[in-house]
């Protein structure tokens, strides 16, 4: 009789351990699924624009250097759900000359310069400006020896 009681007790303990492990695994899977759902973000929609045309909603009063090689030219719905127009080109001017030029243009065209960033560690200067609901980001930097100017406008769709 004692042998049977020990076997039953062993089976009960084994069953309890298996149920505990199963509950742990199920709870872990549920938490993992919840974390993955919370981390999923919408994918931006990007439309390339021919390099000889301005992207839609790009501020026409913000010039691109004459005869510059356009390296990026697109419209997008960005991850914030806003409409983005971006143009990037290789400049024959220095980072500092472009920085001064665009600060002057923005002020003349009624943009409010919110922030000027001089990031010497990454050899870049950034201007953040706004005009009404439109936000503008001008990044002037070096890339493999070339000075590049990337201008991005962000508005509601």
Structure description:
By secondary structure, the chain is α+β, with helices and mostly antiparallel strands. The chain folds into two domains: 1-40; 45-155, 2-Layer Sandwich (TATA-Binding Protein), CATH 3.30.310. 33% of the residues lie in helices and 37% in strands. The chain has two helices and seven strands. It has helices spanning 2-39, 95-108, and strands at 45-48, 69-77, 83-91, 112-119, 124-131, 134-143, 146-155. A seven-stranded antiparallel β-sheet has the order 1-2-3-7-6-5-4, covered by helices on one side. The longest helix has 38 residues, at 2-39. It starts with a helix and ends with a strand.
Provide keyphrases for this structure.
157 residues; alpha+beta; TATA-Binding Protein; 2 domains; 33% helix
Strand sequence of the main sheet, in spatial order? 1-2-3-7-6-5-4
Order of helices and strands: HEEEHEEEE
Strand content: 35-45%
Biggest sheet: strands, sense, closure?
7 strands, antiparallel
In total, the number of domains comes to 2
Oligomer: single chain
Structural category: alpha+beta
- Which shape, going by the Cα principal axes? elongated
* Share of helix, binned: 25-40%
Reading off the top of the CATH hierarchy, the class of the largest domain is best stated as: Alpha Beta
Please work out how many helical segments DSSP would assign. Answer: 2
β-strand number: 7
In CATH terms, what is the fold-level topology of the largest domain?
A: TATA-Binding Protein
Head-to-tail CA distance between termini: 79 Å
Low-confidence stretches: 35-41
Q: What's the architecture of the largest domain in CATH terms?
A: 2-Layer Sandwich
């Amino acid at each position: 009789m004692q042998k049977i009681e020990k076997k039953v007790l062993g089976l009960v303990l084994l069953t309890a351990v298996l149920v505990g492990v199963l509950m742990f695994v199920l709870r872990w899977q549920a938490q993992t699924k919840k974390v993955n759902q919370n981390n999923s973000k919408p994918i931006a929609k990007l439309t390339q624009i021919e390099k000889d045309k301005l992207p839609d909603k790009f501020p026409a009063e913000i010039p691109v250097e004459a005869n510059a090689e356009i390296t990026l030219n697109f419209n997008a719905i960005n991850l914030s759900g806003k409409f983005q127009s971006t143009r990037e080109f290789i400049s024959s001017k220095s980072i500092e000359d472009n920085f001064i030029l665009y600060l002057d243009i923005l002020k003349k065209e009624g943009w409010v310069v919110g922030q000027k960033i001089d990031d010497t560690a990454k050899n870049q200067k950034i201007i953040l400006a706004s005009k009404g609901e439109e936000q503008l980001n001008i990044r002037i930097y070096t890339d493999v020896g070339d000075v590049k100017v990337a201008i991005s406008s962000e508005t509601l769709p």
